[in-house]
Amino acid sequence: MPILNKLPGVVNPVTRLNFKSRVKWTAVGLLLFFLMGSIEVFGATESAYAQFQQVSVLLGSTFGTLGTLGIGPIVTSSILLQVLVGSKIINIDMNSQEGRAKFQGTQKTLAMAFCFLEGFAYVMFGAVPAQSTSLIPIVALQIALGGLIIVFLDELIMKWGLGSGVSLFIAAGVSKAVFIGLISPFGETAAGMIPQIFQFFAAGQPGSVIFPLSIIGATVLVFALCLYAQSIKVEIPLAFSQIRGFGRRWPLNFFYTSNIPVILAAAFTIQISMMGSMLDSQGIPFLGEFDDQGNAENGIAYYLSIPRHGQGGALQDIMLGLTPVDPIRLVTYTLFLSALCVIFALFWVETANMGPDAVADQITSTGMQIPGFRKDKRVLMKILSKYIYPLTIIGGIAVGLLAALADLTGALGTGTGILLTVMILHNFYERISTYYLEDMNPAVRKFFEIG
Prior knowledge:
The protein is mainly alpha-helical and 451 residues long. The chain has a single domain, classed as SecY subunit domain (Preprotein translocase SecY subunit). Helix content is 61%, strand content 5%. A hairpin with a 2-residue loop joins strand 3 and strand 4. The two termini are 46 Å apart. The model has no long low-confidence stretch (mean pLDDT 78).
């Protein structure tokens, strides 16, 4: 499509970038992203935006600033396009270079459109209220332009930096929330967990330290579980067809589609809660009624959102007897998140060139085959199908259950946020150790245990 070639964007590097240059551009992108979250929007009403605290962590957004939208438009456009392409409503051949370019261009077009759509929706529905009616277009336009800048920052990091900008923005936002939640001496509702422990001891209330300790313990536990789950993989033995006695193993991660399904599923549930909260603020409780903290109290959004109260999670409520927990809500949220992860995982395999056909091409291009089977791509595809699709489905269910369980613990940065951060940093580590080894300083190379 000619219009896709005329979209504004970041140019590709003319020459190969070394590791140092990519690190520099990644740092520049992250710095500008954080800077966007510190520049307040002119004409917006000052507000604590407490009801959007959980949303802000996962979308990397800071309400009331140029970074209000965060990565929202990008993931929303990705969700919509995944569904349209996966259901064959839009026919794009992801096995061809032209098809992949068309997919990326269409997604970018949708992301830019959603910047303006969501920017005006946030202002019109009171998420970022304007000081007066005449200032609504100005406030909305500033938010939309901030969203566009984040779209370009994502493109900058993908082309000039390391990995995906969206993933790094999520990891940066979650890491910031965990850091502040642990050691901040101040807070809108309470100080960080560690200062709270000292405050309780100083006030002669040692029994009260159970709550902050449970939050810290839950955070550490979620990190450990996510690290362990990320390391599970299935390895397919391969052998060189021309050289006997030499071979290797082709790894297929248990979480085959990595963090993509969780990002899309989490963004989808967030959009439901945000839309419900904004509609409720306008007297239209179509998705449910919400309290001042943005927690759904009833309706569809209630059963599809995280059972979380205040600083703690559902498990803290159960163990400490703080608030009654609705068991039906626990089940519906867990099942809904797991089902979304499976759906988006299947869509991603088909649209991201990760299916049996693409993997078979990668293996045959190396001159390898599975021992005991004749060298035929069709045979290889049939064998890979027995691994890839079950891993996609089972891994999608597992990552959804793990994300839901992590959310119920009340871990800092949200359980889903920690899961995403662990997976993002693990992929970031693998990308560095695989593609940029030759440019590393010997001391850095030793850290990555290679060479």
